[in-house]
Amino acid sequence: MKTLVLFYSFTGKTKDIAEKKAKELTADIEEILDEKKHSKFGAFLVGCPKSIMRKSWAIKPLAANLDGYEKIVILSPTWAGHPVPPVNAAIEKLPPGKKVEVVMVSSSGSTKDSTEGTKALIAAKGCEVTEYTDMRS
Questions:
Q1: Cβ atoms < 10 Å from Cβ of 63
Q2: What are the backbone dihedrals phi and psi of residue 6, each rounded to the nearest 5 degrees, phi first?
Q3: Is the distance from CB of 121 to CB of 89 less than 8 angstroms?
Q4: What is the C-alpha separation between 72 and 99, in angstroms, rounded?
Q5: pLDDT of residue 74
Q6: Number of domains observed in the structure of the chain
Q7: E-only strand ranges, 1-127
Q8: Which of 13, 18, 43, 84 has minimal CB crowding within 10 Å?
Q9: pTM, 2 dp
Q10: What pLDDT, on a 0 to 100 scale, did the predictor assign at position 14?
Q11: pLDDT computed for residue 135 by the predictor
Q12: What is the Cα–Cα distance from 62 to 28, expressed in whole angstroms?
């Protein structure tokens, strides 16, 4: 099964986890990049409310052709217990019919308040969430 590990990392912690996951799965890997650089203060000030509202912001075009993968593993840090806006933007680009594994990375290790909503966003794209994991960073 051709697999892509797709991740966003603001501080580098999620990147480390994504690289290990890609190696473990022998998968391709791609980082989701902001179209515009955000300061830490600005990212959290704007990003936390957007995360809670499941909104996105502009990301650079993905190099990988998502249609060419059977499975996509999405790794996201959490802001206010929700996926970050760049990951929401990547979810918007998912083609239907993909198997999607979600790994949410946070200092608390819990996204209990946003789990079902995140799964619903992915299902609305016609994709199947095969696994959802909360991981403590």
A1: 9
A2: -115, 125
A3: no
A4: 6
A5: 98
A6: 1
A7: 3-7, 28-31, 71-79, 82-83, 99-106
A8: 13
A9: 0.94
A10: 96
A11: 92
A12: 13
What pLDDT shows up at residue 113? 87
Tokens for 133, please give them.
């994991």
Kindly state the tokens that stand for 104. 């949410």
**Phi-psi category of residue 129: left, alpha or beta, with phi > 0 → left and psi -120 to 50 → alpha:** beta
Question: What's 35's domain CATH number?
Answer: 3.40.50.360
pLDDT in tens, 40-56: 887 888 889 899 999 99
Residue found by looking up tokens 């990049």 in the block: 33
Tally of residues, the chain: 137
pLDDT at site 1 = 84
Positive or negative, the Cα torsion across 32, 79, 94, 66? positive
Q: What is the pLDDT of residue 108?
A: 77
State the residue range of the domain holding 88.
3-136
Q: How far apart are CA 93 and CA 82, in angstroms?
A: 18
Residues 6+ apart with CB under 8 A from 12: none
